[in-house]
Amino acid sequence: AQSVTQLGSHVSVSEGALVLLRCNYSSSVPPYLFWYVQYPNQGLQLLLKYTTGATLVKGINGFEAEFKKSETSFHLTKPSAHMSDAAEYFCAVSAMDTGRRALTFGSGTRLQVQP
Amino acid sequence: DGGITQSPKYLFRKEGQNVTLSCEQNLNHDAMYWYRQDPGQGLRLIYYSQIVNDFQKGDIAEGYSVSREKKESFPLTVTSAQKNPTAFYLCASVRTDNQPQHFGDGTRLSIL
């Protein structure tokens, strides 16, 4: 079975500050990892993904994440927060488990950006 | 533009009533999924379908039913057996295993 833990349900940063959203996963098979962003009353939009290859993954809107197998982590970062980054962020893991490949989501982290 | 269309955006259910949420995609994706989102709990898988005329229960299938008669369509019925249906429902689809899922804009279901 696979699982995802997002540390911190709420994170607040100042505009221009570093954004760090933490994600740890567990999976008995090599996982695919994703970060999604959700704005109020909307669906999820993909920020970035890791499947194989380079462990530092760059996504949209200046976000990036690094896959660290030894730490079972996939933390999301952005060097400088913008007001438009305020949203909820979900980390998800996909692994072939019991014959199905389905996403397992973390409980989400709400990012606030203070002016 | 290709995408996933969910309708309606808002839906209200009366006691003892079944309601159906629509999900249509024109991305030519084989697999489709239904998730339920509750505050502070992330998304939980209700049902999924990897091919037409076949679907599987997810983690919280009780009180829900689906059909997959066409590749493009994967409607979800919330039955009267689902005692706590108030939630935000998201439909998703994907082409192949290593690709990310694409999501619709969701349907918010409330009880009257």
User: Sheet bearing the most strands of chain A, described?
Assistant: 6 strands, mixed
Low-confidence stretches of chain B: none
Low-confidence stretches of chain A: none
Work out the oligomeric state of the chains in this entry: heterodimer
Strand percentage of chain A, roughly?
A: over 45%
Large-scale geometry of chain A: globular
Strand content of chain B: over 45%
Give the largest interface. Answer: A-B, 25 and 27 residues
Structural class determined from secondary elements of chain B = mainly beta
The average pLDDT value of chain A, as a whole number, equals: 91
Report the average pLDDT across residues of chain B: 92
Shape of chain B: globular
Alpha carbon gyration radius of chain A: 14 Å
Helical residue percent band of chain A? under 10%
- The Cα radius of gyration of chain B reads 13 Å
**Helix-strand sequence of chain A:** EEEEEEEEEEE
Q: Report, as a whole number of angstroms, the end-to-end distance of chain B.
A: 35 Å
Task: Figure out the total of helices of chain B.
Answer: 0
Run of helices and strands of chain B: EEEEEEEEEEE
Q: Would you report the number of β strands of chain A?
A: 11
3D structure, described in words:
The complex is a heterodimer of chains A (115) and B (112). Chain A has 115 residues and is mainly beta. In chain A, 0% of the residues lie in helices and 60% in strands. Chain A has strands at residues 3-7, 10-14, 19-26, 32-38, 44-50, 56-58, 64-68, 73-78, 87-97, 100-105, 109-114. In chain A, a hairpin with a 2-residue loop joins strand 9 (87-97) and strand 10 (100-105). With 112 residues, chain B is an all-beta fold. Chain B has strands spanning 4-7, 10-13, 19-25, 31-37, 43-51, 54-57, 64-66, 76-78, 87-94, 102-103, 107-111. In chain B, the strands form two sheets. In chain B, strands 2, 4, 5, 6, 9, 10 and 11 form a seven-stranded mixed sheet that branches. A four-stranded antiparallel sheet of chain B has the order 1-3-8-7, with no helix packed on it. In chain B, 38% of the residues are buried. Chain A binds chain B through residues 4, 9, 32, 34, 36, 41-46, 49, 51-52, 90, 94, 96, 100-103, 105-108, and chain B through 4, 6, 33, 35, 40-45, 48, 50, 56, 58, 88, 90, 92, 97-98, 100-106, 108.
